[in-house]
Amino acid sequence: QVQLVESGGGLVQPGGSLRLSCKASGIVFSVFTMGWYRQAPGKQRELVANIRGGARTNYADSPLGRFTISRDNSRSTVYLQMDSLRPADSAVYYCNAAVGQLSYWGQGTQVTVSA
Fold this sequence. Notes:
115 residues, 54% strand, seven-stranded mixed beta sheet, mainly beta
């Protein structure tokens, strides 16, 4: 049974930081591309960043330079360090694991950036 469990969301003031974690189980973690997506109310889910098994990273334009994705294959965990947060970053953040035709999603964690 595949599980992706996100944690680390919450309420933060503009300019603040949060670190999201996603712990995976039931998959061979190292072969999967791990990604973070987000979905704000009324908007489509969008890619934030992803990281391949070999640690090559890819970022969307908006978080570039503010967010950092990383992975620890020994812990089957992917992280998203979010700095200089803006109200526009408020969304539910989802963890994704993908390889070939396989794609798995976590339940999501809420991030709210507000004064």
